[in-house]
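Deviations from the work plan: none for this task. Representative record:
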Amino acid sequence: MDIRQTAQLARAASIRLAPETADRKNRAISDIAAALKRHADEIAAANQTDLIRAEEERLSAPLLKRLKFDTGKITEACAGLKSLVSLADPVGVTLQATELDRGLELYKVSCPIGVVGVVFESRPDALVQISSLCLKSGNAVLLKGGSEAAETNRILARIISEATRQAGMPENWLALLESRSEVAAMLDLDDAIDLIIPRGSNEFVRHIMENTHIAVLGHADGICHVYVDSKADLDMALRICVDSKCQYVAVCNAAETLLVHRLVAEEFLPRIQTALEKKGVELRGCEKTRQIIGIKPASDEDWQTEYLDLIMAVKVVESLEEGIDHINRYGSGHTDVIVTADHARGKKFMDCVDSAGVFSNCSSRFSDGYRYGLGAEVGISTNKIHARGPVGLEGLVIYKWRLFGNGHIVADYAGAGAKAFSHRKIPPLQG
Amino acid sequence: MDIRQTAQLARAASIRLAPETADRKNRAISDIAAALKRHADEIAAANQTDLIRAEEERLSAPLLKRLKFDTGKITEACAGLKSLVSLADPVGVTLQATELDRGLELYKVSCPIGVVGVVFESRPDALVQISSLCLKSGNAVLLKGGSEAAETNRILARIISEATRQAGMPENWLALLESRSEVAAMLDLDDAIDLIIPRGSNEFVRHIMENTHIAVLGHADGICHVYVDSKADLDMALRICVDSKCQYVAVCNAAETLLVHRLVAEEFLPRIQTALEKKGVELRGCEKTRQIIGIKPASDEDWQTEYLDLIMAVKVVESLEEGIDHINRYGSGHTDVIVTADHARGKKFMDCVDSAGVFSNCSSRFSDGYRYGLGAEVGISTNKIHARGPVGLEGLVIYKWRLFGNGHIVADYAGAGAKAFSHRKIPPLQG
């Protein structure tokens, strides 16, 4: 079966999934958890096959670790499914309700998007998480995981499909793609796929974004900044810089560039140098920085690099405005932090920095669906439309306009003697 | 100045526009209205130049009518601006507020999208309407109007820029593009433009959608259906069909295809034939239809054609499900209507038809921002993400996550002795 047919079956399934009730979807998600536990041995065996091949192919230790899907991971995945069941149904929420005239009532009601394509790298837990998020939000999903995890992904997809089929969900709501050529073909299916979510490296996400006209939800770079203002509490700034840079360097919400207002640079830079170098961080600075502390020079390239490593670029800025301009020019619109004790300056930064997350006096590392309390994260978006920042279930729904009349026609509201619209707020739609 | 520079200036202006207050933006919009009235003679003269050239170039009468921008049109435009001032500010609305921990507060707050590119055909009133919608929502805008209206658009853009500059709005928030090559160049500026809104013919919108990686808000086709169910009140169905087809044929929310359940086909088809033919509508039918009424045959092409004319395709379906399938296959996701007295069948149609507007027992012609009470319409979207159906000001905003801490770092919430998140709902952000 080619990918177009697969996508068409998924679209047909998405139509049947749309009216499913929260109870039935939740029961199906619970059944996935039960099935994963029941088939734990088979999953472990399939994962073992992947691990052996990966070792033969000399995958790096961190990648091997991500690939591993053992009993502990199954237990974690099941806990995730349980917490997903406890979240409110994102579908069927009345967002707006207006009486247009007597007996003519308009409801803007949330509904699934339709068919979502998700491409993710090695971690097999992502397959369980993403497919269950799609099911909860009533979407069909085409999934492509890393080829290293082929056996694990195959058995997980089979178990999930089978468990949900037995729970009465439509067949074909979940399809696993197995080759890169299928991903390439998927990117062309504007008419069958409504949203693509790529999860992986910068290059990978950028490649997807540049090769499809389908809407893409995600982020390529995470070039996050910490700006230490002239009015900053420097002890606080120190803690926040160290945490933003070092608490976990290999992730998109780690800080890459430190901006320091010139009025506090002489005092702050030697202190942050000591603190960061103690953590093994290499600093690269602008000219003004290097007049104060002895570090390597930063090039223009540094301002636009996501190191994902123990390296930080440092720049002295003349003003809050220069800091904002630098971030809007070189940043990636992910998450940026100001440290300041001055409320008005903090507000200006948060108003004018054009990023998904604008933080005052706290670490960039808080930019995360779990920490935000979203319950489950589809991904982090640096898009400017639909959904921005950490995206939970609400990023997988859109709305439709439901209009109920009783024979109402527009001719009665036009021309001489036209009836008037009432446009009166009414209570949400029930049932 | 090339288009990239223009877009960069617009982006810089959008950053300065983002923190503007509702009062100041509203005052600027009122000042636009005053300036249009003050410069009415100049506008009329410029429009006269366009009209004379258009007549020489033998533009059709409807196009000439759309091009005309006289005192009456200025008065209308000013009334539109006045009503825009009265709408609530879409920027700065707290959509969600959560305490993550004591003193660590997260707010999801609406904000402008940034830079919007709008390409519209001849009507100069669209320039006033779109630019003021962008200003109200805090967005910078690059505008390209029809070349027939070049002189009118130029003077309108100059008056609006000048009036808003005097009202203290940032310069360069509005730029007028003058050539097709500038539009082509704009479509490549993924990094400088956040959203494209094309308003015009199918071919035109489709061309834009296929030639940019920037998000596009709009609709190409409007292939709307009326489905007359087995449980329909046939008198009501008759009224709704005639209104949906004939009340104004040349618009996207007019119906193009009539679907009739076989159980009512014998009774309904002769009646609707009489009614529609009296209005001058040509009917084209499927085989089953033609066994009941003598009309031309419909081809597969007819099911996917937006006539925008006095033509309607007619098909007899065996079931509600066949009707839904037909709409999801051939429709454009714009607006589709069921006529039925059976609530459960109506609900199934509205759940399963994957369109922006799903209507029960009323005309497709209600699908419109003004009738919905949105106040002002940016356009109608058949997208599946961001905004769907008639889109008002809320389609021109997104949100950012504002997180306020007091030195909070993630290290305190990780590992042994980790602090817990409270994730408690709190009141919206003030000021």
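Chain A has a mean pLDDT of 95.
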